[in-house]
Amino acid sequence: xxxxxxxxxxxxxxxxxxxxxxxxxxxxxxxxxxxxxxxxxxxxxxxxxxxxxxxxxxxxxxxxxxxxxxxxxxxxxxxxxxxxxxxxxxxxxxxxxxxxxxxxxxxxxxxxxxxxxxxxxxxxxxxxxxxxxxxxxxxxxxxxxxxxxxxxxxxxxxxxxxxxxxxxxxxxxxxxxxxxxxxxxxxxxxxxxxxxxxxxxxxxxxxxxxxxxxxxxxxxxxxxxxxxxxxxxxxxxxxxxxxxxxxxxxxxxxxxxxxxxxxxxxxxxxxxxxxxxxxxxxxxxxxxxxxxxxxxxxxxxxxxxxxxxxxxxxxxxxxxxxxxxxxxxxxxxxxxxxxxxxxxxxxxxxxxxxxxxxxxxxxxxxxxxxxxxxxxxxxxxxxxxxxxxxxxxxxxxxxxxxxxxxxxxxxxxxxxxxxxxxxxxxxxxxxxxxxxxxxxxxxxxxxxxxxxxxxxxxxxxxxxxxxxxxxxxxxxxxxxxxxxx
Length: 485
Prior knowledge:
Layout: E1 10-21, H1 60-72, E2 76-77, E3 80-81, E4 84-86, E5 98-100, E6 107-108, E7 111-116, E8 119-132, E9 136-138, E10 147-149, E11 156-162, H2 169-185, E12 198-208, E13 218-223, H3 226-245, E14 253-258, E15 263-269, E16 279-280, E17 287-288, H4 291-299, H5 305-314, H6 320-326, H7 330-340, H8 346-364, H9 375-386, H10 392-405, H11 411-417, H12 426-439, H13 441-448, H14 455-465, H15 472-484
Parallel strand pairs: 13-14
Antiparallel strand pairs: 1-11, 1-12, 2-6, 3-17, 4-5, 4-16, 6-8, 7-8, 8-11, 9-10, 12-13, 14-15
């Protein structure tokens, strides 16, 4: 069936709703712990359980974190704020309603930059608003009953809502990757989708290319990784196109994604906003954000990833790709900047960070904070190469591992102990060159007949025979003299 369908005549329109749990100590409207985990129903109190006579009270830190994210996303911060009751049956919220922001989100508009296939663009945001999380329903521990854990109920969330501004699963993947990097960078959220501290719902519709009217949207939920969001969107786009092409009708609904087989199934027809019966929360007074408070939050912001990328490329001369990879993680940039304070060789420092250091971390699934060498030790190793005492290959394969095993020793001490200091004297290199050329007379003849690319083979043989101690640049020069002589 699908073989005869022209999928390319359609385009997708995608909007994402991301819930991110804020890194506060306590809940949004109660003093209960907001920490992940814990025995079921141990992070609760009468306020969380909605007992009669209890009143919610505002968590100032949650407001501050929402504003931090809003500034980083170039939003307009709404100074006059109030909360609303969202009256919808939540079986895992004891009050029977959720406290959220409706007509007055704390952050309005804004955008998040993404980089897809070498092209940068901004994904437009509609809003970022504060609300409380629901508890957790557990269906697989009792054959007859659903168990409820209220530990998560009331944990502060921000909901980040895009405009219908994405057109592919790849763009959604790039947006979520950037958003997760941003919330971690700002210490707003840990971004852990597997633990549910960052969750994404996707609104997907299709239309013929060239049309401007939006199609009927379908919401897809229950995706526990960025990769699964991408898979779910790809599946939903394909499902909708095949449905239309075979005479079916797309209905507005909420679907759940099954990661085990890459398909989705219908959960319920989609509710409209009036189904939630919003009205201002009577137990929480409206609050105003002063300019002084906003300035305080603004001054606390770290340099953002895109700002660092621009600085690294314009001031340090790094390649844009290298700068972006270094800025994937805030702790990596802290190490890199400490390294740059110790060495003037920016691109060499970048090459080490993205090469040997990254390989060491990946092999151990470790973070940069686990790397045993401090930036000054790595800078000393870079200097050893720059001074011509060792080459990069020897430094990365022999000296770096030895330094990691003996972190108290300098690179020069390690190189000397291992007899790895490069020979920079022509008199000691020429005999090795002559021996190599004598071993490969046929290759010498080929080189002299025009196969100049063989020079690399000759250099490699000299390096091998010298145990890596011959200066590659000098070796190359001496070889050319011998071969052309």
